[in-house]
Each structure stands twice: as C-alpha cells, then as structure tokens.
Amino acid sequence: METSRAWLATLRRHGVALSAVVAVVVAAAVWGPGLLLGPEVPVRRVERRDFVQTVVATGRVATPHRTSVGVQLTGTVLRVAVEEGQAVRAGDLLFELESSEMQAAQSQAVLAVRQAQARLRQVRELQAPVAEQALRQAQANLDMARGTLQRNRDLFEKKFIGQAALDDAVRAEQVAQAQARTAQEQLASARPGGSDLAAAQAALAQAEAAAQAAQARLAYTRVRAPVDGTLIARNVEPGDLVQPGKALMVLSPAGVTELVVLIDEKNLHLLRLGQDALASADAYPAERFPAVVSTIDPAVDPQRGSVEVKLRVPRPPSALRQDMTVSVDIEVARRPQALLVAADGVRDPDSAQPWALRVEDGHARRRPLRIGLRSGGWCEVLEGLAAGDAVIPAANGGAVAVREGMRVRVQGAR
C-alpha cells in the first residue's frame, strides 16, 4: 500500500515536469522565430520603370470670353426664337421686338429717297436743258439790243433821232445784258458743280442717310447672334418691355475651350507653358481628353495660396459644357527607367535628409536617401537604394514599431 502511494506521487511529479516541458516546446515553436528572427513586417520593393510626375488639380470649363446680348432700343418682345442650351450660328435670330412703328418710319424714309431722286433727275434732265435754251434766247436778245443801240447812236450823231430814242436803245441793251447774265447763272447752277445740282444731290444724300438710319432701327428689332456659340443664359420672354443697357442673353462662343484650375503655389516651380495634361469632366470620369498649359497667372492668391492656370483643349469632347467641374493631371516631368519606391517607404521626405529602413540580412538598417520626383504615391530614388531592395514602410499595418537594428522578417512585398 505504501509502495503504491509512493509510485503515484512519483508519477504526478514527473507528469508536472513533462507538462512544463511540453509547454516550453510549444512556446518555442510559436514564439521562437519571433524572438530569434524578429517580427514579420510588410515591405515595399524598390523597382525600376518609366515614371511620370504629374500635378493634380481641379477646376472648371471656360471659354476665353462670354458674349452678352441686349437691345439697341426700347421695345416690346414679340417672340423668342431660341432656348437655353441651344447652339446657334452667327446671324441666327435670337428674339424679335414689335416693329410696326419702325416699319412705317422706314417706308417714309424710302419715299423721301424717291422724291429726292426725282428732284435730282429734274435738275439734270429738265432744268439744265431749259436753262441752256434760255441762255441762247437771252444771248440772241442781247445781240439784237446791241445792234439796235449801235444804229441809234449813228442816227443820233446824224441828227435823225432824238435823245429819248437813244436812251430807249441803251436801256433795252442793258436789260438784255442782265437777262443773259441771269440765264447764264441758271445754267451754271444746273450743271455739275452748280448750286441747284449740289442742293439736289445733298437732299438725296440726306434722304438716303435717313433711310439707312430707319433701316438700321428696323433691323435692331430683330436681335441676331453675333458669333457662333451656345446660349447659356436667357433672361427674356415674349411680352417683356426691354431697353438698352441690360444683358438679355449670354452666349458662350464656339472656338477654343479652356480649363481653369487652381494649383497650389508649392507646385508653381514645376509648371511650364506648353506642358501636356490629361483631363476629365467629373460628370464623365472615364472620358479623358488632352489639354495643354496655355497661361500661368503671374499673381498668387494670398487667401488660398494658389495660382490660376489655364489649359487649352484642342479637341474638346462633345459632352463638355461651360462651367463643368474637371480634374486635370498636368505632366511636369518624365524619367525613363527611374528607380522608384512607394512614398510611405521614405521617412522625412520633405526634410534635408530623407531616409529609409532597408532590410539587410534580417535586420532593419537606416539608409540615407537622395530623392527626386514625387507623384502618385511614388518617389524617385537618386541615391541610397537599389532595385529589388526591401524597405519597411513608416506605417506597417499595425505591426510592432520597427527600430533601426532590429531583427525583422519580410512578410510580403509590393
């Protein structure tokens, strides 16, 4: 009995020891690699490929200018021929004013022109020939009066007639001479350069000018598109009383389309005129189209710390509309076969001494870097790393914080 109890006590002691040994073995199997080889950490692999640096911005669609359309005179709108959003060609009717009074004035002006033309024809075709005939008659009368005067003088010297008869002949010659001068002046006035002809021509010119003014005022009642474009605003309806000085419609002219975006001033040194870009409207994100940097505003907005940049769109897609929101990727640099690492693998990238933790022989080693372009979550490595190197990212997915010199194991690669 005593022997059995002793044997059981011995067995219990060895069982406890065996359990302890098993626990140690299991713990070594589970935690041994971590204790001996360090924690598993994700890494970023350094790779070599072509790299494009872009500056990303948002903005809106704009045309170089907008055209406001109004009226030249006060009137009542008779009808509106276009709707907002409609494309129009230069010369297309936009809206029309009531024009009965203008039409009557234009008709009166046309009649005044016809009357002035008739007066001019009268001067040229009737008055001038009559004046020529009158001048010939007056000249003949003058010649006859002069002959009579000369004969009467001869008779008076021979005492055949008295002083009264001579005086009558003198007066007759003077009257004939005055009539000849009058006829000559009348003919001169009817000929080119003469006063009657000049007055008739001036009256015709005045009537034609009045007719043109009346025609222009009548034309002002039909408001037409000044340029090709799209109607983007309409503030007029039939029956409205309108007057000069108010924009009733706004046209977005057809032609060069521009994108206006705001760029953070810290990227200003990267921008150049003529740089290529790819853009897309937020309403159609899958439809990307090319654009070119055309203008960089020389001033910086102090409130927003941004610079306005305009991009020309050589071939705008048909779906693009005025004031649409757009996203733009401006290509500012390109590197063929650049050495790249994910941006989260670079520590202190904005400092004078960026660095990375590279996995070397199972240890995390600090490596100073010289970096170049940065874009789209990638950094160009100029010095400090080689293709294929494994770099521990700054945020390693919640794993233990890695310090320089720690033993680590590579969990995965990117």
From TrEMBL:
The keyword Signal appears for this protein: yes
Presence of keyword Isomerase: no
Ranges of residues in domain CusB-like beta-barrel: 261-331
Pfam family, one: Beta-barrel_RND_2
Top-rank taxon, per record: Bacteria
Chain segments annotated as transmembrane: 16-38
Keyword field: Coiled coil, Membrane, Periplasm, Signal, Transmembrane, Transmembrane helix
Signal peptide stretch: none
Subcellular location: Periplasm
SUPFAM superfamilies: HlyD-like secretion proteins (SSF111369)
Domain Multidrug resistance protein MdtA-like barrel-sandwich hybrid: start-end pairs: 68-249
Gene3D superfamilies, sorted: 2.40.30.170, 2.40.420.20, 2.40.50.100, Helix hairpin bin
InterPro entries xref list: Beta-barrel_RND_2, MdtA-like_BSH, RND_pump_MFP, UPF0194_transport
Family: Belongs to the membrane fusion protein (MFP) (TC 8.A.1) family.
Protein name per UniProt: Efflux RND transporter periplasmic adaptor subunit
